[in-house]
Amino acid sequence: MPALTMGDPAGIGPELTVLAWKALREQGDAFLWVGDPALLVPHVPVRVVQNAAEAQAVFGQALPVVPVALPVSVVPGQSDGKLAGAIVESIATATRLALAGSVSAVVTNPISKIVLKEAGFGFPGHTEFLASLCAVPGEEIMMLASPRLRVVPVTVHVSLREALGMLSTERIVQVGRTLARALRRDFGLDSPRIAVAGLNPHAGEGGVMGLEERDIIQPAIDRLREEGIEATGPYPPDTLFTDLARPLYDAALCMYHDQALIPLKTLDMATGVNVTLGLPIIRTSPDHGTAFSIAGKGVADPASLLAALRMACELGEQRLKNKGNTP
Prior knowledge:
It contains 10 helices and 12 strands. It is α/β, with parallel strands linked by helices.
């Protein structure tokens, strides 16, 4: 059973949580929520619990909650820096439960990076904070996954200019290793196929349009293959995500954020899931933000959160099945 964090309570997280419970309460994919029960009480029955066993027992009748109190009242769409401490505590509590084995995964409702930063939060976002809580800073890798495509960017939340400067053979190898391990351990693929994207148009066109493929990317692919990882490429990015190409690989390793996320969100925005690789726990999240502009209006779509919860359950079961068997 995963633990679902509160996210920013002024965003769409609370209403998506309500919709998710209503959708899943009779299907068996139970979860517990870490947040202030007062946010949910008018909309669904709530039961305060201490652990996953209690949550499982009541899930069909009420939404189980591990309480984290908010210091001020919430106005949908109007985030408040005074809420930052409770938002962070919700994430930390869910992570502690996962590290202790009390829950099978952490699913995170969206937060506002700007609101938390202005309140003194010392991390760029969820992912880096989770890595710190899990004592593996720097090992976190972002995957976006859907039934139609899995993508992993080598560089993430930096400007394109910075991303180019950060790109290195060693970084590509590190991300490729983590990706291969996750595909085996958590996705159940015995021999995962990784397609590596080029950086430049036409993957450099033999050096005519750039040398990064020759000098940085190809050496990384060679090293991964020497380690027994089925990595191929570099492929021209403009053809890597076509209907004909996608069935030929299990995940695409991309060089920068938008190279990975644009095709995923174009193909499957509604059911795309953010999965953090490289952690000792499973973490997923919906592939959207706080959506302050529609919070409280009853129009938020729970599809991505439902996909994140279901994927968390599936990955948890797969990891438990492979425990001790996957290098």
